Amino acid sequence: MSRFLFTFLILFVAWLGFTTSLHPQELITGAVVSLIIAFVAFKTFTDFGLSFFHPQKIFNIIKFIAVFLVALIKSNFDVARRVVLPSLPINPGIVTYKTELKSDTAKVFLANAITLTPGTLSIDVIGDELFIHWIDVISTDPEVIFNEIGADFEKILKEIFE
Fold it and tell me: Which of 62, 67, 108, 144 has its CB 3.0 to 4.6 Å from that of 139, i.e. a possible disulfide?
């Protein structure tokens, strides 16, 4: 029941975000559509229930967004600097990033966070390894790769999803 309610709430909030309307007919339609979709899809939609809305998890989600935005800004400046100053060396390559995350949902969030920061692109996830194209491979040491690419993301994602 908790997973069903979680799915319904997420879908209904998305409905409200897309319609941007609080007219009664929009609210009723959104509730009915969200209920139908939640009933059909809640088992595959999420592994989480209402416990996901625990204040500590909400705090960690906000912390993740802040850490992501800082990484996004830093990597944007790094890539922009490489474009403006073509004399700066680049050393593109594909590296293997070994994650400690167990949840598939957490791995998806990690891969997307890595992809959304310029200079890195998640290519594939196989088991506990992410294959990432990196604009400037500074090391092939797994520990350096882990710390440079996603350690900050992973730490917070563990607190959110596990």
Answer: 144
- The continuous run of DSSP H or E covering 131 comes out as strand 129-134
Closest CA to 156 of 123, 110, 91: 110
User: Are 113 and 156 a contacting pair, CB within 8 Å?
Assistant: no
Range of the domain at 34: 2-51
Residue type, 93: G
41's tokens? 């899809």
Residues ≥6 apart with Cβ < 8 Å to 108: 125
Q: Which residues of the chain carry a pLDDT beneath 50?
A: none
User: For position 49, what pLDDT does the model report?
Assistant: 62
C-alpha–C-alpha distance, residues 124 and 132, integer Å = 7
73 and 43 both lie in a single domain: no
pTM of the model as a whole: 0.73
Q: Where are the alpha helices (H) located in the chain, listed in sequence order?
A: 2-19, 24-45, 55-84, 104-116, 142-149, 151-161
Same domain as 40, residue 108: no
Distance (Å) of CA 32 to CA 3, 7, 37: 17, 13, 9
